[in-house]
Write a structure and sequence with these properties.
The structure is a single chain. The protein has helices at residues 9-24, 45-54, 84-87, 152-162, 238-241, 257-260, 273-280, 375-385; strands spanning 60-69, 89-96, 101-106, 112-116, 120-125, 130-135, 166-168, 172-176, 179-188, 195-203, 209-216, 224-233, 250-254, 289-290, 293-301, 305-310, 317-323, 339-342, 345-351, 356-362, 365-371. The chain is α+β, with helices and mostly antiparallel strands. The strands form 2 sheets. Strands 1, 2, 3, 4, 5, 6, 7, 8, 9, 10, 11, 12 and 13 form a 13-stranded mixed sheet that branches. Strands 14-15-16-17-21-20-19-18 form an 8-stranded antiparallel sheet.
């Protein structure tokens, strides 16, 4: 079973973006039509959210969509194979009332198709003729007060408490793809890294999300946005969402246990530098601070790897360390990306508008550093660890 770290760089990025699209695409997402359409009456945010949760869900959703991706700066992916998930695309979306759905994207860079059910997601990337399959976490039926709707007062209290960490806008009445909708913007007040804000708009009549967008700090246009130009509600045929990839496609099964740890690893966690160092079997790099951020956590994961966290919130830096595998392809999963020098050590770097990932090897240890910080700061942090 193939693990994420063995995937070619472009295929790994495609998969990550596909999962982001699925998480946003469980319902139709739409872009404001530019005026002239209906808008709902003004309401306090707590009331608008309560009405959205309480509204009956539609039997199904059909939409024409566009996906915008400005995450990667020009030149960051030179030499990478094309994909509609990496360059942006247009297409269609279908969602049934029982948790099944399909997103179909087309572009000159290569088509993509994402199909999901309550238990599995499948991503077909036509540019590489590859299918990625992953199991979704099972939903628990033991949640207290399952099915109980929050009251307006409870929602208002939650928003007040959340206001200590994030700035939440009012519910703005807008016209979204010809539907009366409310739009809200949420921005971190601190520890937000490069994230500027996230916007969400939903249908005032039924609570269906109609637009999702992510903005980088200081940006006036979204870095990522999933949108539709037309949306309709009604029953969706199972044949619209139950689409199999081409028979000759390469299949990659993604093992979710690689991230969560196997059943045998479910005992007491190994945390703290002394205990982790004793169990890791290789020298663990974990200075007290990194580019001004204090050390917050050191723990063993998967029985073989170490995760070291600096800072907190979205502004945190995470470092994954593990003994280098002599049989693994040299260069790691980011080897096709541009190189940077860490005082003589060659590293590979993916710099985006929302964060930076750097991968390198030093003294027999593989390192991956990731954080929502500019590339210069990420490189300074990596030099401290190498």
């Amino acid at each position: 079973m193939k693990r994420l770290r063995t995937l070619p760089t472009s295929r790994l990025l495609v998969l990550i973006l596909a999962l982001l699209v699925v998480s946003a695409g469980g319902a139709a997402l739409a872009v404001a039509s530019g005026g002239g359409g209906p808008t709902p009456p003004p309401e306090p945010l707590a009331q608008a959210l309560h009405d959205a949760v309480a509204a009956p869900a539609p039997d199904g959703i059909t939409a024409r969509i566009t996906f915008t991706n400005k995450l990667f700066p020009s030149g960051a992916l030179v030499g990478q194979a094309g994909s509609s998930l990496m360059s942006g695309a247009s297409g269609r979306l279908w969602v049934t009332g029982d948790g099944h759905g399909r997103i179909e994207l087309q572009s000159d860079a290569g088509d993509a198709q994402i199909v999901w059910s309550p238990t599995e997601v499948t991503v077909y990337d036509a540019s590489s003729n590859t299918v990625y399959k992953a199991a979704l976490p099972a939903k628990s039926d033991t949640t207290p007060d399952k099915g109980a709707l929050p009251t307006v007062a409870q929602i208002s209290d939650f928003l007040t408490k959340a206001g200590a960490d994030v700035a939440v806008s009012d519910a703005e009445p807008v016209d979204v793809a010809g539907r009366a909708a409310y739009n809200v913007s949420v921005a971190p007040k601190h520890d937000g890294g490069l994230l500027g804000s996230v916007e969400l708009a939903w249908d005032a009549a039924n609570g269906v999300p109609l637009r999702a967008a992510v903005y980088a700090q200081g940006a006036s246009s979204p870095v990522l946005e999933l949108a539709v130009t037309d949306v309709s509600y009604g029953a969706v045929s199972a044949s619209d969402v139950d689409i199999a990839p081409p028979a000759g496609a390469k299949v990659v099964e993604l093992d979710s246990s690689a991230a969560s740890g196997s059943t045998a690893d479910k005992g007491a966690p190994v945390t703290g530098l002394p205990a982790v160092q004793a169990a890791a079997g290789f020298p663990v790099a974990a200075p007290d601070s990194l580019v001004g951020l204090p050390l917050k956590d050191v723990r063993l994961v998967g029985g073989k790897s170490v995760v070291v966290v600096y800072g907190q919130g979205l502004g945190a830096i995470a470092v994954l360390e593990r003994q280098a595998d002599a049989s693994a392809p040299k260069g790691g999963s980011l080897s096709a990306l541009p190189t940077v020098s860490l005082d003589g050590v060659t590293a590979h770097e993916l710099a985006t508008q929302l964060g930076t990932v750097i991968e390198w090897q030093s003294a027999g240890v593989d390192y991956v550093l990731a954080g929502s910080l500019p590339s210069a700061a990420a490189e300074a942090a990596a030099r401290t660890l190498k």
